[in-house]
Design brief:
- It is built from no helices and 15 strands.
- The chain is mostly beta strands and about 210 residues long.
- It has a 15-stranded mixed beta sheet that branches.
- Strand 5 and strand 6 form a beta hairpin.
- It is globular and about 60 Å long.
Length: about 210
C-alpha cells in the first residue's frame, strides 16, 4: 500500500499514543524537518489524528470498527516517522510494536506490553513495559530500562552515563562495545542477568546480591 506523507514544520517534541492496530518505525530525517508516512491513510475504518502546536506534535489512531468480540487487526497500519536530531519522543499506550533505527535524541516509552528494537541510535533511552521484549543493537547513551515479565537484550552498546536494566521475571543480557566509565545496575528477580565486557578492559567494583 502507498504511504501518505505529512510534513509538519520543525518541532522539539512528539508524543505517540500507540495502539494495538499499528506498528511504528522511527528513523533519522534527512533534513531538519519531521516527516510522517502513514499506510492505509485513507482507510475509513481508522481515524488518524495529528495534533500540532508551535513546537510539538501528538499522534494517534483509532479502530472505528472495534468490538470486543472481533480480533484486532495487527501490523496492517504503519507509521513511519523521520525525525531530526535532538527531538524528544514519548510513546504511551497499552501495546507497542516499535522499531527505532539511527535516531539521535531522547525517547521514552511506557506501555503495558511491547516488542521494541533500537538500532544504531544514541541519546537517552527511558523504556518501561510490563510484558514483552526490549532489544538494543549498537546504541549509545544513557539507558533506564525496566519491565515486569520482560526480556532485555543490549548488544554492543556504549554507556555514557549511569544506566539501569531492571526486570522482575525476565532475562537481561548486556554486551558492551567499550569499557564504561559510569555505574551499571542489572537487576532481575527470577531470571538471569549477564554483563559481558566483550573483550574490553574490566575495571571498577562489582556488587552481587
Amino acid at each position: 500500500p502507498k504511504a501518505k506523507p505529512f510534513k509538519p514544520a520543525l518541532k522539539d517534541e512528539i508524543t505517540i499514543d500507540v495502539s494495538p492496530i499499528s506498528r511504528y518505525t522511527i528513523t533519522a530525517s534527512s533534513d531538519q524537518n519531521v516527516h510522517i508516512h502513514i499506510t492505509y491513510a485513507d482507510d475509513p475504518t481508522v481515524r488518524y489524528t495529528i495534533h500540532e502546536t508551535d513546537r510539538a506534535l501528538r499522534l494517534g489512531d483509532k479502530d472505528l470498527n472495534y468490538h470486543p468480540n472481533r480480533p484486532t487487526p495487527r501490523d496492517k497500519y504503519q507509521w513511519k516517522l523521520e525525525l531530526p536530531k535532538n527531538m524528544k519522543v514519548k510513546c504511551n499506550g497499552g501495546i507497542a510494536r516499535l522499531n527505532v533505527d539511527s535516531f539521535d535524541g531522547s525517547i521514552s516509552v511506557e506501555t503495558g506490553q511491547g516488542t521494541m528494537t533500537f538500532k544504531r541510535s544514541k541519546g537517552m533511552f527511558d523504556i518501561s513495559t510490563a510484558l514483552g521484549d526490549i532489544r538494543f543493537v549498537q546504541c549509545e547513551g544513557t539507558f533506564h530500562v525496566s519491565g515486569v515479565q520482560a526480556d532485555i537484550d543490549a548488544s554492543r552498546i556504549v554507556i555514557e552515563d549511569e544506566s539501569k536494566f531492571l526486570t522482575n521475571g525476565g532475562d537481561i543480557k548486556v554486551v558492551l562495545a567499550k569499557t564504561p566509565r559510569h555505574n551499571i545496575t542489572i537487576t532481575t528477580g527470577t531470571g538471569r542477568g549477564l554483563l559481558d565486557y566483550n573483550g574490553n578492559t574490566i575495571v571498577g567494583s562489582f556488587k552481587f546480591s
